[in-house]
Amino acid sequence: MSILDIITKKRDKKNLTKEEIDFFIKGYTNNEITDYQAAALIMAIFINGMTDEELYNLTFSMANSGEILDLSEFGENVVDKHSTGGVGDKVSIVLLPIIASFGIPVAKMSGRGLGFTGGTVDKLESIPGYNTSISIEEFKQNVHKTGISMIGQTLNLAPADKKIYSLRDSISCVDDVSLIASSIMSKKIAAGANKIVLEVTYGKGAFMKNIEDARVLANKMETLGKYANLDVESVFTPMDEPLGYAIGNTLEIIEAINFLKNISIPDDLKNAVLEIGSKMIKLAGKGDDLEKIKNEIIEKIESGKAFDKFKEMVQTQGGDISYLEDVNKFEKAKYIIDIKADKSGTIKEINAENIGKLACYLGAGRIKKEDKIDMSVGIIIHKKVGEIINNGEILATIHLNDISKKDIAIETIKHIIKVD
Ligand code: URA
User: Fold this and answer.
1) Could you give all domains of the chain from N- to C-terminal order, each with its CATH number?
2) Residue 394: phi, psi to the nearest 5?
3) Is 187 a catalytic residue?
4) Is 319 in the pocket of ligand 1 (CB under 6 A)?
5) Is residue 180 in contact with ligand 1, taking CB distance under 6 Å?
6) For this structure, is 2 an active site residue?
7) pLDDT digit string (tens) for 282-322?
8) pTM for the predicted model, two decimal places
């Protein structure tokens, strides 16, 4: 078997066998297949699609490319969540400490930024000292000790997806239902939880642009979950405008901290946290009444228990919690520029994808897979769609380190935030 034959087959719209998919996944994981060969095959899959059988084989082959975590020592209901990605999406960072504060074990493996969307791991790494790449043993120890650990995709769990994920990011092959479904479910199969809530985002700031495509994606992931004996439920989160007000790694961590401290809680972020959180807690067997669970979640925030759990997690993971106590300690970008509205009106649109792309341009995301992220840059929006703004009021604040990007950034923001 040769990788060239496999690429040729997919390029010519033929279906790949299980053996061919396994050959590719094994070879790419072991560095026997090059990035450019893998890129050619992924692009051919992106263009020509996969059958359900190919999707199943790809998902399980990626899941089996490393270790399959056994989390049964934490009980029979180990819950997890995964988002299909969004702009300003800090739901995991806020929600998982809340879940852990209910006494439900959280062992979470998250991803990095992809395309115009940010990633939980990059955001967590903006906390000085926070180590997202610990060993699986340490990961489990942390869950035993504090009830929660949030880490990146370590080398041993779904390593094939880790390589393919960052490759897709750098060859514009992200927004494909089958590739997303296999990427997410391979990680979930490997990550060991048996009850999973999927946050399927849709709209301008998501990979799925409408609810119909989001349903197709959810359906594919739920079917893959069934094959793997996982209980999978989906929650659909609209993502036309960014979630919350902050976009950019440190800025989003600060927004998440202020949420957990009950200082400021954006409505859309709160809704996502309550919807996903109540389903997770129900799946964990800690209640049936979703409305009652939502009230209990609010109580965990108001009592400070959720924030305490977050602090405990950060400390155990090596992070400096003095930054959580005083968010002013976070390193700021060199230039912080307010952009004012030049007319009064209603905010009609804040295209989340374009805001995400602007954040990437400022350095918050990667263009090439080896790019280093600039933690401090990003955008704060000051109004949400539907709100009134007066002439001269601040529309958005840009945080940047490269002053040569200032003029383009200001112009772009004025185009993105539509006032009428
Ligand atoms: N999240 C993932 O884990 N994989 C994707 O492909 C997209 C979003």
Assistant:
1) 3-49 (1.20.970.10), 72-325 (3.40.1030.10), 332-419 (3.90.1170.30)
2) -75, 125
3) yes
4) no
5) yes
6) no
7) 999 999 999 999 999 999 999 999 999 999 999 999 999 99
8) 0.90
